[in-house]
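Allow me, if you will, to draw on your knowledge of protein folds for a short while. I have a record of one protein: its chain in single-letter code and its fold written as discrete structure tokens. Kindly check, if you would, that the fold set down in the tokens agrees with what the sequence suggests. Thank you for your consideration; the sequence and its tokens are set out here:
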Amino acid sequence: MNSRRDAGGTPQSPFRAVELNLNRMVDTVDLGPAHPPKEESLKVFAEVETELKRELLHQKHTYLKHEPEYFAAVQHLSDSDLTSFTNADLESVRVAQSAYGIHLLGKVRIPPMPDDGPAYIHVRVFISDEPAKLHSIHTEEREEPDGGKRYRAIFTKHDELEWFDT
């Protein structure tokens, strides 16, 4: 296997190179301010809605096997309740232009959830000359001050819609 080395000769993981490239991507896009979705954003959301619901259920069932904390806030919901959102539930968007196309980040409300707690998913859609494609649903793994980790895929109204890759 061909291993990469840094300037000091230390072997580097190939995943580190991918991480650096993703970080560069964030540096090369100008993420606009959050705002209510306009007609074009609603149209794009409608194009990926079926794929989004399918992927959300896939992630929920996958994470429930290994990391149930990601979907703990909505574990009590049926699959149909979890995916009962429509483009009317797309509450906020941010748009970024890159050399490859347009990135639409969206905050989607899960209707059966109470507004004062975790009730939102964050999604990223890629738009180019081809039909819009769901890029990812945000899942967050955060290290806590005590050394533990916090996992979540369901966010609150007050969580900012920031750039994400996963």
Summary: DSSP finds three helices and nine strands in the chain. The CA atoms of residues 63 and 70 lie 7 Å apart.
